[in-house]
Amino acid sequence: MDCHVHLDEIVIHDWSAARNLKTEADQVRWKGVSINHHVRHIEKDNLDQIFAIYENPESILKLRDAAPNCDIKAMYFVRDVAGVNENLLADLFKNNLLNALKVHPVVDNFELTSENLQTVLGVARKFRLPILYHSDDRRSSMHLTSPELQKRLVTENSDILFIIGHGGAYAHPRLCGNNLQVESYWNGPHSRKDLINKALELAAEQENVYYDLSVATNVIKASLIAKFLNRQRDASEKILVGTDFPIKFSSAQTQLWSLENAGLKKSLVEKISSNRLI
In sequence order, what are the beta bridge partners of 6? Predict the structure, then answer.
């Protein structure tokens, strides 16, 4: 399975968020790829289930038609958490186009709190939907999804399932080795090791929280995950394979190989590969 697949292009509407990400408001920040590319992603790793993040319902319908042997779960990307169209979401649910929700505090510029997500949480509760939230590791925006905010959100809403998108820190695969940039990223005053370990701890401790592997191809990140799970083997039940497709390193199998290469016991790798959210 793959719990983190993007179908549509992503446009940043908030001017402050756009400035922080060094782009312009209302311009495409992340481009989408064709349905055929998504089908190849599914077929390459023989995925039997994916959570496809979308804004345009036509995207889900096209992918379901093109990949009938894969269980395509529709994860609606809520872009305006303060102005949620509840009638739209109810219609999507009625038409089997709403199986989960996605929120991104960074691109839409809000703190990850129950207050800010009040309506989103209400919809999730009403239709029994899991929520995938982005967790950030950039100095300019990581405060929006801090470990403290994450813990408060999931404990205040223990009846809702949450997925920690990117597992605490994205960790680009090239951020490894021995140089000042790598040292600052992993061990500096904004330690990304700490973000990853706290996300793993949250998933292990809280029954309603799951950890998204995307992207675990960074050898340091993979090593942190492997060490944690080898110590707390039961926590492997709370780890979901995710890729953030269509990014370059977005192979479900590659995430699992990275964990095994980092020393994770093969039985635990196999357990993670079989995990499902719903």
Answer: 53
pLDDT digits (tens, 9 = 90+) for 197-228: 999 999 999 999 999 999 899 999 999 999 99
* pTM exceeds 0.90: yes
Q: Residue 162 is inside which H or E element, if any?
A: strand 162-165
- Contact in structure between 262 and 223 (CB atoms under 8 Å): yes
As given in the structure block, the two tokens for residue 251 are: 């192979």
| Three-state SS at 159 | coil
**CA 55 – CA 57 distance, rounded (Å):** 6
The pair phi, psi for residue 139, each rounded to 5°, is -60, -35
Q: Which residues of 134-168 are buried (b: 16+ CB within 10 A; e: fewer)?
A: bbbbeeebbebbbbebbbebbeebeebbbbbbbbb
Q: Which residues pair with 213 in a beta bridge?
A: none
Q: Which two tokens stand for residue 241?
A: 């394979």
3-state secondary structure of 165: strand
SS3 181: helix
3-state class of 143 per DSSP?
helix
87-114 tens-digit pLDDT:
999 999 999 999 999 999 999 999 999 9
| Cα–Cα–Cα angle for 216, 131, 107, rounded to 5 degrees | 70
